Amino acid sequence: MMENSNLDRTFAALGDPTRRAILDRLAQRAGATVSELAEPFAIKLPAVMKHLGVLGEAGLITRSKSGRVVTVRLRPGSLRDALAWLQRRELFWSTRVDKPTAYAERKATQARARK
Amino acid sequence: MMENSNLDRTFAALGDPTRRAILDRLAQRAGATVSELAEPFAIKLPAVMKHLGVLGEAGLITRSKSGRVVTVRLRPGSLRDALAWLQRRELFWSTRVDKPTAYAERKATQARARK
Predict the structure, then answer these.
(1) Cβ atoms within 10 Å, residue B68
(2) I need a surface site. Which of A60, A63, B15, B102 has the fewest CB within 10 A?
């Protein structure tokens, strides 16, 4: 089980759209340089570096330096504990807390998803 | 699909151990008053109110007032989009990104879990 502080860092890191977009870009390739990652975003390199720092602290990415080039990669498996935390709660909330409401909400979501 | 800003709020709300503990307490009962929720925590009522504000903004709880008593409840289904976001990534990262590493890490995690 991941320690509490790691869950804190993981969830906090995911609470930002640029950081989630960086992760999605990394998922499309084996690795990317910092400038490749920064390219599509309308923010400056130092801001990207700061986001990468947060993602690194949360253990979601690794950074390796070769000469002056830093290559960033996803760290496989690093979302597992956050996912497990959510899975246990989502299941429990849906099946136990206020059953009729949960059922109605699930049906409404499914109906919307089919549209 | 949940909007980006809702995902921001959900993940940010989950990035705090007191807020996650409040959610877990709420999952054990049909509803709780603010003072019932505050009771096990070594923090003052205004701090608890602030955490409830963050959880409410993220749509994870509902608050209803009857006279002077505020009852707090979980909002069923409110974790679903955050869960879906993580599920898609976790699967993808584990199966595609750096396969041997992902496999080795998964095995190591499983071995640790069996201990």
Answers:
(1) 6
(2) A63
